[in-house]
Structure formats: C-alpha cells, structure tokens
Fold this sequence. Notes:
The chain has helices at residues 14-25, 46-60, 69-80, 85-91, 98-103, 109-132. It is mainly alpha-helical and 133 residues long.
Amino acid sequence: NSKNRKAHKVPLSPLAIKLFSELYALRDESDWVLPSFTDNDSPMTERVISRAANRAQEVVGIDKWVPHDLRRTAATKMAGLGVAIPVVEKILNHTMGGVMEVYNRHPYWEERAEALVRWSQEIESIIAKDSVY
C-alpha cells in the first residue's frame, strides 16, 4: 500500500535475500515472513516496527527517531555513494515532478538493482567495522 497508489517493485540485493531467508525460517509456519505476534495469519503492522524503534532508542544512541528516518538515511547514503538522484527517487517510489514526470518514463530497474547492491555492501561494511570493536 503506497501513498502514491503506484505498484512498487523492489529489486532485492543478496543481503536482502539472505535476511528474508533467515526471517522466513523463523516464521513458525505462517504464510507471512513477518507475521503478527498475536495472529499468525496476519502480517506484522507498521506500529510494531515503530514500537520496536522506540524501545531501541537507548541502544542505538539516538534520542528520537522513527522507522521512516531509515528511508532518509538510505537515500542520503546512496546519493553519497554516487547513485543518481532519479534512481534514488525510483527506489523510494517517489513520483517524479515536472519535466521528469512527463518525459522520462525509464523505469531504472537495472540501475535500482545496482544501487541497492551498492547500498547493501555499504551496510555490510558498516556492520563489519562495528563487529571489530
């Protein structure tokens, strides 16, 4: 369910596939990769993720953040990795404004896939650095 009511397909990086596979193995026979804690036949809600983020505030060391902030962080970091802004916007499922919306109909699928691989490699690099300490 996206705000702009457009289908949003996301190419998964090897890291995303690995993490989803691990979650799938823990799903306790539910049809959902992230099932509800109270009803195995329903998906986990966004509120559960927000509550988990609230509980993790102290561990993360950031006073106040919400899960939506992760989108901004990913967009900022991908731009810093040299990912073109139209590609970042497509990854976020933003609608293009002005001339871009009218004239540029390219889906940027391959570019999105490559950008998400680069972003996952950056995440793995950050995790590897943190695990050294």
